[in-house]
Amino acid sequence: MSLIKKKINIDLLSWKNELIISQKEGKTFVLDPIRKKKILLQPEELVRQLMILWLIQKTDFNRNNIQVEKLIKINHLSRRFDIVVYDKNIQPYILIECKAPDIRISQSTFDQIAVYNMTLSAPFLIVTNGLETYCAIMDHKSKSYVFMDEIPVS
User: Fold this and answer.
1) Do the beta carbons of residue 119 and residue 74 sit within 8 Å?
2) Which of 39, 71, 122, 136 has the fewest beta carbons closer than 10 A?
């Protein structure tokens, strides 16, 4: 399956000034509004926090239905999803994988998240590096996905 370039028009990095940043002992931390704690600010964490901020401010999802760094078992291996958004029935709705801005999003990135999603069965997948964001809808029967033009917001 080839990567269909249907990039979502979201410039997550433009939201950097909205984050709550602090310094301690020469290290930079960001306040995670979901986990309610300060997290060491690494490039991938920056993208994760910007995506969380976007979800809270630009969608109708309840912040209580957003889970960060969810641990699941896949084929007896522990895997950690960056962000899972649950629907009103507390079923996985969107699975989000965040990469550092300097990491290119490839077909294998999407294939990996799609395989991980076989356990959760979320209907939507998002992969972002802050510069590029892609969203796909899963067809669980055929174990395939189709890229979308926008992110579901409710």
Assistant:
1) yes
2) 71
Is the pLDDT assigned to residue 126 strictly greater than 80? yes
In a domain, 154, yes or no: no
| Cα→Cα distances 94→4, 22, 37, Å | 19, 30, 23
- Measuring CA to CA, how many Å separate 110 from each of 34, 90, 113, 142? 25, 24, 5, 16
Q: For the chain, what is the domain count?
A: 1
Is there a domain that residue 62 lies in?
yes
Long-range contacts of 97-100 (CB under 8 A, 24+ apart): 97/125, 97/126, 97/127, 97/128, 98/44, 98/47, 98/48, 98/51, 98/128, 98/129, 98/130, 99/44, 99/47, 99/127, 99/128, 99/129, 100/42, 100/43, 100/44, 100/46, 100/47, 100/129
Q: Which domain, by its residues, includes 140? A: 7-147
Give residue-wise pLDDT tens across range 37-70.
999 999 999 999 999 999 999 999 999 999 998 7
Q: Say if 1 falls within a structural domain.
A: no
Q: What 8-state DSSP symbol labels residue 101?
A: T
| pTM, full prediction | 0.90
